[in-house]
């Protein structure tokens, strides 16, 4: 079943996106720094990117389809992006959503002046809001859910821009980390549950915001702190910083899948090194699902830290039994199914000299459709492995994400269709095990998952969605999509 909607899909575009955002205020070469920051966030979206800059009077923009290094390959581009304020976006959209008009940051001339917005996340009532806005006369330029925020700001009954902004945020549900620019300030904010990440840093007199701390490292900025869930940080061009908490105290539900897969291992998230968490998940997995074997082999790159943890905990030697070509992008992040299939083969090759005759423990971070696991297990067998035991450094992915991580509809999720025995057979492994949800929580530093008040958004594993899913609930087929409560408001 496809998560599509005729209202938004007139030209085949869809709403779900994976993204990274970066913004800086107070730097002489703000646009060039933003390009560098986006380059460090490239793993969060590889389809398109853009930068908007501001020189105190005018806004300037450059956007394009492709990687940051391609779209911003020419130094001359930065001469056309002057100013000490800039923000940028890297984007991946699901099949068909790669139109030029959806490339962010989006820009609009509002009554109060120019306004740009870069968004990571997904608004789960965007279609409903868009329908209302259009019926009142709004004319949309893109099919991106982010544009809904601009129209809500434009039509707000409040006078001051910040009040309009808060008014708009009160109407949206779902996940959003935003970096916005107005003629006099940069505004960074995180949704009340802090589902998607956003960090703040400093370099000289400049203030920097980024989806992940790795982008601060790369531009030479010092990590200051995370933007808090529900916080709006306003930085003026004169350097003054104001923090607003319009939603009061909220209980955070940051996405646990950022730790499992999405973030770069050299980022620090929620005070934890992503690499260390992944290594720890591997150690938990070795305790929960031991197996007699000769070699622990990671599926590169995403399985490497967990495989190191598994090997350290179990005492089984670690070895690179699969070599990855670095000239192919992330398997999953390819817009069409055909491209994805071809990529698995081009991306990984067995290291026969290491694998032949051995009992292998294969470690990957997750199974989504099962395509990767099936091919890699077969690759190990073809290279002469005696046994292949698959261990997965996350619980089974049984539910779709509606908060900005691209997981396919439930019907395509292997774990939603099959039990462990069936999955084992499907991927043709000798055994298969996933880390438990509590094992995962232990790895991120919790004693266990609190059922009453989960410390993270883990809806992809548990079906416990922390916000209403208005658009989804509206659809005729919603019943098939969700088996667990829709409409819980944290
Ligand atoms: P699949 O072949 O469909 O089972 O996908 C599993 C592979 O995709 C794993 O090796 C993961 O590293 C990767 N992966 C899992 N979830 C995501 C995601 N949301 N976005 C991109 N890649 C992912």
Draw up the topology in text:
Layout: E1 17-25, H1 30-40, E2 48-54, E3 59-65, H2 68-71, H3 76-79, E4 85-93, E5 106-110, E6 113-123, H4 126-135, H5 146-155, H6 161-171, E7 174-182, E8 185-190, E9 199-203, E10 206-210, H7 213-219, E11 222-226, E12 232-236, E13 241-244, H8 257-262, E14 268-269, E15 272-273, H9 274-288, E16 295-298, H10 304-314, E17 322-324, H11 337-347, E18 348-350, H12 352-355, E19 359-364, H13 371-382, E20 387-392, H14 414-417, H15 420-427, E21 431-434, H16 437-443, H17 459-462, H18 470-474, H19 478-481
Cofactor: Mg(2+); [4Fe-4S] cluster
Pathway: Purine metabolism; IMP biosynthesis via de novo pathway; N(1)-(5-phospho-D-ribosyl)glycinamide from 5-phospho-alpha-D-ribose 1-diphosphate: step 1/2
Organism: Novosphingobium arvoryzae
Structure report:
With 490 residues, this protein is of the alpha+beta class. It has helices at 30-40, 68-71, 76-79, 126-135, 146-155, 161-171, 213-219, 257-262, 274-288, 304-314, 337-347, 352-355, 371-382, 414-417, 420-427, 437-443, 459-462, 470-474, 478-481, and strands spanning 17-25, 48-54, 59-65, 85-93, 106-110, 113-123, 174-182, 185-190, 199-203, 206-210, 222-226, 232-236, 241-244, 268-269, 272-273, 295-298, 322-324, 348-350, 359-364, 387-392, 431-434. The protein has 2 domains: 16-254, Glutamine Phosphoribosylpyrophosphate, subunit 1, domain 1; 273-448, Rossmann fold, CATH 3.40.50.2020. The protein contains 19 helices and 21 strands. Strands 3-2-4-1-10-9-11 form a 7-stranded antiparallel β-sheet, covered by helices on one side. Strands 5-6-7-8-12-13 form a 6-stranded antiparallel β-sheet. The chain has a 4-stranded parallel β-sheet with strand order 16-19-20-21, with helices on both faces. The model is unreliable at 1-16 and 481-490 (pLDDT under 50). Helix 4 packs across helix 5 and helix 5 (146-155) crosses helix 6 (161-171). It binds adenosine monophosphate (AMP). Adenosine monophosphate binds at residues 261, 299, 302, 330-333, 364-373, 405-407.
């Amino acid at each position: 079943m496809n998560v599509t909607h005729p209202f938004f899909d007139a030209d085949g575009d869809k709403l779900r996106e994976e993204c990274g955002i970066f913004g800086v205020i107070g730097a002489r070469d703000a646009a060039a720094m933003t390009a560098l920051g986006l380059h460090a966030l490239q793993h969060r979206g590889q389809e398109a990117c853009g930068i908007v800059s501001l020189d105190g009077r005018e806004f300037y923009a450059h956007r394009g389809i492709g990687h940051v290094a391609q779209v911003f390959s020419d130094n001359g581009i930065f001469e056309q992006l002057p100013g000490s304020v800039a923000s940028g976006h890297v984007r991946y959209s699901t099949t068909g959503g790669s139109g030029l008009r959806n490339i962010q940051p989006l820009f609009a001339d509002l009554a109060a002046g120019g306004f740009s917005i870069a968004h990571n996340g997904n608004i789960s009532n965007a279609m409903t809001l868009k329908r209302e806005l259009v019926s009142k006369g709004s004319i949309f330029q893109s099919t991106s859910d982010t544009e809904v925020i601009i129209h809500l700001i434009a039509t707000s009954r409040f006078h001051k821009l910040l009040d309009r902004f808060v008014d708009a945020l009160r109407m949206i549900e779902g996940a959003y980390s935003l970096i916005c620019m107005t003629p006099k300030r940069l505004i960074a904010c995180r949704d009340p549950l802090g589902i998607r990440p956003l960090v703040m840093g400093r370099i000289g007199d400049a203030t920097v915001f980024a989806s992940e701390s790795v982008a601060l490292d790369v531009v030479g900025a010092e990590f200051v702190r995370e933007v808090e869930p529900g916080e709006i940080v306003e930085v003026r061009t004169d350097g003054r910083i104001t923090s607003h908490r319009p939603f009061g105290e909220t209980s955070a539900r940051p996405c646990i899948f950022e730790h499992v897969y999405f973030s770069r291992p050299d980022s620090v998230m929620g005070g934890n090194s992503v690499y260390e968490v992944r290594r720890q998940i591997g150690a938990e997995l070795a305790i929960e699902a031991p197996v007699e074997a000769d070699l622990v082999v990671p599926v590169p790159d995403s399985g490497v830290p967990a495989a190191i943890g598994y090997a350290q905990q179990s005492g089984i030697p670690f070895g690179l039994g699969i070599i990855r070509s670095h000239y192919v992008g992330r398997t999953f992040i390819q817009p069409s199914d055909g491209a994805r299939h071809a990529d698995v083969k081009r991306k990984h090759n067995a290291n026969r000299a290491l694998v032949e005759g051995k009992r292998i423990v294969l470690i990957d971070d997750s199974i989504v459709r099962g395509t990767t696991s099936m091919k890699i297990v077969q690759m190990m067998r073809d290279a002469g492995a005696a046994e292949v035991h698959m261990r997965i450094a996350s619980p089974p992915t049984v539910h779709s994400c509606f908060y900005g991580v691209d997981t396919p509809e439930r019907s395509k999720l292997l774990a939603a269709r099959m039990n462990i025995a069936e999955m084992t057979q499907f991927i043709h492994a000798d055994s298969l095990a996933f880390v438990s949800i509590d094992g995962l929580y232990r790895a991120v530093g919790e004693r266990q998952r609190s059922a009453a008040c989960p410390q993270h958004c883990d809806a992809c594993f548990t079906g416990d969605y922390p916000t209403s899913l208005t658009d989804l609930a509206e659809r005729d087929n919603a019943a098939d999509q969700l088996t667990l409560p829709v409409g819980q408001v944290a």
